[in-house]
Design brief:
Helix content: 55-70%
Structural class: mainly alpha
Number of strands: 0
Radius of gyration: 21 Å
Number of domains: 2
Shape: elongated
Strand content: under 5%
Length: 182
């Protein structure tokens, strides 16, 4: 169980979203952390009281992670905003997904993939290799195959991202307003 009860979180978020007091004053009134209240209010705006309640640990599919990353990029959302929108309890996990994708492509988003670890190691090695440009003639066959695999993964990710973007396009007027739910 967390530091605050579900009732306390819901009461604080509802009070703040009621618009009577500012963030700090509401946090003081309820005896809660300002940063926590900010998160609860964001979740409350999107999902109501259910968004603030304690959640079980969840495992996310690769497709879900891609949708989250794509939405974050297309709408230029922060980790906090996209976590509230998709009801993700730990917003820091989104940064982990983002780094995994950037280093290993779509395959690195699979928690059971060995490419996830390979991608991280390859990224570290590529940083040191970037300082010494090599031409293709001097690189080993394995280095070239690794680069080809990386480029193929990035290409597959971009194709999937484009397909998801076309599938999930919503008109701007369909977005939910910033006001809190009652």
């Amino acid at each position: 169980m967390g530091k605050y009860s579900d009732q306390k979180k819901i009461a604080a978020a509802a009070d703040y979203c009621g618009g009577h007091l500012g963030l700090r004053a509401t946090a003081r009134r309820h005896g809660v952390n300002v940063a926590s209240l900010r998160l609860w209010a964001a979740a409350y705006r999107v999902h109501g009281a259910a968004g603030v309640r304690s959640k079980e640990r969840r495992f996310y599919t690769v497709q879900f992670k891609l949708r989250v990353l794509q939405r974050m990029q297309t709408d230029k959302l922060s980790h906090r905003q996209v976590a509230a929108l998709f009801d993700i309890r730990r917003r820091d996990i989104i940064g982990v997904w983002q780094r995994a994708y950037e280093t290993g492509g779509v395959a690195a988003l699979n928690p059971h993939s060995s490419l996830r670890c390979m991608g991280m190691a390859r990224h570290k090695n590529s940083e040191s290799a970037a300082s010494e440009p090599e031409d293709d003639e001097t690189r080993s066959r394995q280095e070239l195959l690794d680069e080809l695999r990386q480029l193929r993964m990035e290409n597959a990710y971009l194709k999937k991202l484009k397909a998801l973007a076309q599938e999930n396009q919503q008109p701007a007027h369909d977005k939910e307003p910033k006001s809190c739910k009652s």
